[in-house]
Structure formats: structure tokens, C-alpha cells
């Protein structure tokens, strides 16, 4: 897959295009992406997906402090590559783009990127003040020489699958629901930092994680069963998201991973974490000994949980590899 940041990279290429921010690239999105791949073969065109960066809300200053992403741009790129797209267009979102009418935006897209077929999701809107929709695309299709189609929204849990619903599930600690809507385990990627090494003192050394993207959504506080990727090696472990109330009086949120049967020095290395299941809430225990007993129980419980999954499950869905 080729990452496109300038229109001239597509010179001489005609494309089938879908567009959007695609946060999470979830199962609802894949109805779109699968159809793009299918149509590109049928029509003998190149497949392309266009997303905006930075997020429009950051540019337009619409509550940017509330913005949290399911997928970073790097994660998103890897997902689309694994799906089999020919081109991933990263369109810089600027005040000029924001000010374009729906008609001008469609004209800009089709002429800049040689778009011959457009596929959008139901209720997708675009252009200044979100004035554009499928009717706009239909109205200008003949003049701008492209064909088009619309894809229905996938529903589950008696509601449509959406990035908003997945964020809500993660914030509520409902990993099962979030992962089912995503179609893969929720991912967290970051750097391993040196911590206070309290875990090592009680027999549970942990890797302290600093996420690469400060806008990445962190699930609710609690203990999780996780799969870890360290430079292509799969490891199993448990992760705590919280404030460590038993051993720390401050309220700083930390993300710590204990990797099972692992003793190597991995400080400053990159780590990819697939969050499989949420096991329990974070708790404050009366003393360190009771915390250790609970951690032993958690380790056995989480190993049983992870061992219930076929390894092919991990290899198929660990999309940051």
C-alpha cells in the first residue's frame, strides 16, 4: 500500500474511493472498505481510502480537549495496509478544506485524485457545515464523470456500530462489547518507561507504558488480560490501568503491564498491547500481602482466559504487527 500525501502521487491512476475519519476502522467501516476492494477488482481500478489529518475538530477548535481516538494514524495505516488497499490518502485538513462547499469539495476530490467511483456510508456528510450527502454526490456524478453508491450501517446490540458507541463501551469497561464491534482486540501502543519498581519488590515486575499518542483513548481503570507484542514476539500478561491505591497516595493514572514468565530488560522499547478482556475493577487492599494474593489469583485467572483463545486468533487480529 502506498501512502499518498500529494495528489501527484496518483498521477495516471484511476481509483475507487471511500472517505472519512475511520476512527477504529471497526466492523461498520469494513462494510465500506470491503466493497471498495470488491469494486476495484470489478471495475479494474485502484482501491483507495481517504482520511483527514489532523482531526477536523482540532483545526476548527471544537472542544479539542474532549477528543480521544480509538486508533492512531499509524495504527490506522497498518490496518488499511493489511486489508489490502492500494492507496491510503492522508488529506491534510486545513481551514481552506473546512471552508469548501460540498460541491467544491467533491470537485476537488475527483479532479485531484482521479476518482471514478465513490462509495460512502449511509448518513455520511461532508463539505462546509456538513451540507454534502449522497444526494450531492448523485447531483454532480454526470458532470464530474464518476459513479457512486451508498452502504447501509451495520447494526449490533440493537444499535448501529459506531466509533462513538465503541468509545462508550471502553469508558464503561465493556471490552467484550467494544472488541466485538471493532472486530479485533483494542490496541494500545507505546514506550516502556522506568517506574518506581514497586511491582518487582512484590514479585510482579511491571512495564510502565507511555502511549505514543496522548489523544489515544485509555479504557476505564481496572485489571485486564492482554497479549503483548515485543518486536514480533508474542507474550501473555496482565495490565493494570489506575492509580495503584494500595501502594500510592497520589491520583496519577498509570498503565502497567506484568508479562508472564519474563525477566528481560526492555526499558525504552516499543510495545504493542492487545487488550483481550477486563477482569476486575482496580481495588485498594488493606496491606501489600493481600494485594500479592489477589495478583496471584489474577495471574491464574488471566492465564486461563488467554489459553482459551486459539493462537491463530491472535495472529489474525493483532493488526499492529
Describe it for me?
This protein is α/β, with parallel strands linked by helices. It folds into 2 domains: 2-159, Rossmann fold, CATH 3.40.50.620; 184-317, Riboflavin kinase-like (Elongation Factor Tu (Ef-tu), domain 3, Beta Barrel). Helices cover 33% and strands 27% of the residues. It has helices at 27-42, 56-60, 73-83, 95-98, 102-113, 134-144, 163-171, 175-182, 198-201, 288-307, 311-317; strands spanning 2-4, 15-19, 46-53, 87-92, 115-121, 147-151, 155-156, 159-160, 186-193, 207-211, 222-230, 233-242, 254-259, 270-280. The protein has a 6-stranded parallel beta sheet with strand order 1-4-3-2-5-6, with helices on both faces. It has a 6-stranded antiparallel barrel with strand order 9-10-13-12-11-14. Strand 5, helix 6 and strand 6 form a beta-alpha-beta unit. Helix 5 (102-113) packs across helix 6 (134-144) and helix 7 (163-171) runs antiparallel to helix 8. The longest helix has 20 residues, at 288-307. It is elongated, with a radius of gyration of 22 Å.
Q: Could you give the topology of this structure?
A:
Blueprint: E1 2-4, E2 15-19, H1 27-42, E3 46-53, H2 56-60, H3 73-83, E4 87-92, H4 95-98, H5 102-113, E5 115-121, H6 134-144, E6 147-151, E7 155-156, E8 159-160, H7 163-171, H8 175-182, E9 186-193, H9 198-201, E10 207-211, E11 222-230, E12 233-242, E13 254-259, E14 270-280, H10 288-307, H11 311-317
Parallel strand pairs: 1-4, 2-3, 2-5, 3-4, 5-6
Antiparallel strand pairs: 7-8, 9-10, 9-14, 10-13, 11-12, 11-14, 12-13
Amino acid at each position: 500500500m502506498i501512502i499518498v500525501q500529494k495528489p501527484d502521487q496518483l498521477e495516471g491512476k484511476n481509483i475507487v474511493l471511500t472517505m472519512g475519519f475511520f476512527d477504529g476502522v471497526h466492523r461498520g467501516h469494513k462494510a465500506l472498505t470491503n466493497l471498495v476492494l470488491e469494486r476495484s477488482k470489478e471495475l479494474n481500478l485502484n482501491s483507495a481510502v481517504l482520511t483527514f489529518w489532523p482531526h477536523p475538530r482540532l483545526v476548527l477548535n471544537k472542544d479539542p480537549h474532549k477528543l480521544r481516538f480509538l486508533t492512531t494514524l499509524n495504527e490506522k495505516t497498518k490496518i488499511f495496509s493489511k486489508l489490502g488497499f492500494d492507496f491510503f490518502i492522508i488529506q491534510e485538513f486545513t481551514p481552506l478544506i473546512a471552508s469548501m462547499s460540498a460541491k467544491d469539495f467533491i470537485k476537488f476530490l475527483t479532479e485531484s485524485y482521479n476518482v471514478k467511483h465513490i462509495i460512502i456510508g449511509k448518513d455520511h456528510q461532508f463539505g462546509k457545515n456538513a451540507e454534502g450527502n449522497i444526494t450531492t454526490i448523485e447531483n454532480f456524478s454526470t458532470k464530474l464523470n464518476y459513479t457512486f453508491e451508498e452502504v447501509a450501517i451495520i447494526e449490533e446490540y440493537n444499535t448501529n456500530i459506531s466509533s462513538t458507541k465503541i468509545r462508550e463501551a471502553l469508558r464503561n469497561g465493556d471490552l467484550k462489547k467494544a472488541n466485538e464491534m471493532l472486530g479485533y482486540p483494542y490496541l494500545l501502543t507505546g514506550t516502556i518507561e522506568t517506574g518506581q519498581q514497586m511491582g518487582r519488590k512484590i514479585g510482579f515486575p511491571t512495564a510502565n507504558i507511555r502511549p505514543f499518542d496522548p489523544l489515544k483513548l485509555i479504557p476505564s481503570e481496572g485489571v485486564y488480560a492482554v497479549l503483548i507484542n515485543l518486536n514480533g514476539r508474542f507474550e501473555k500478561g496482565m495490565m493494570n490501568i489506575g492509580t495503584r491505591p494500595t501502594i500510592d497516595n497520589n491520583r496519577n493514572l498509570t498503565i502497567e503491564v506484568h508479562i508472564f514468565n519474563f525477566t528481560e530488560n526492555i526499558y525504552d522499547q516499543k510495545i504493542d498491547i492487545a487488550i483481550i478482556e477486563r477482569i476486575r475493577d482496580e481495588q485498594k487492599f488493606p496491606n501489600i500481602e493481600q494485594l500479592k494474593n489477589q495478583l496471584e489469583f489474577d495471574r491464574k485467572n488471566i492465564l486461563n482466559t488467554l489459553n482459551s483463545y486459539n493462537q491463530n486468533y491472535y495472529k489474525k487480529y493483532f493488526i499492529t504487527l
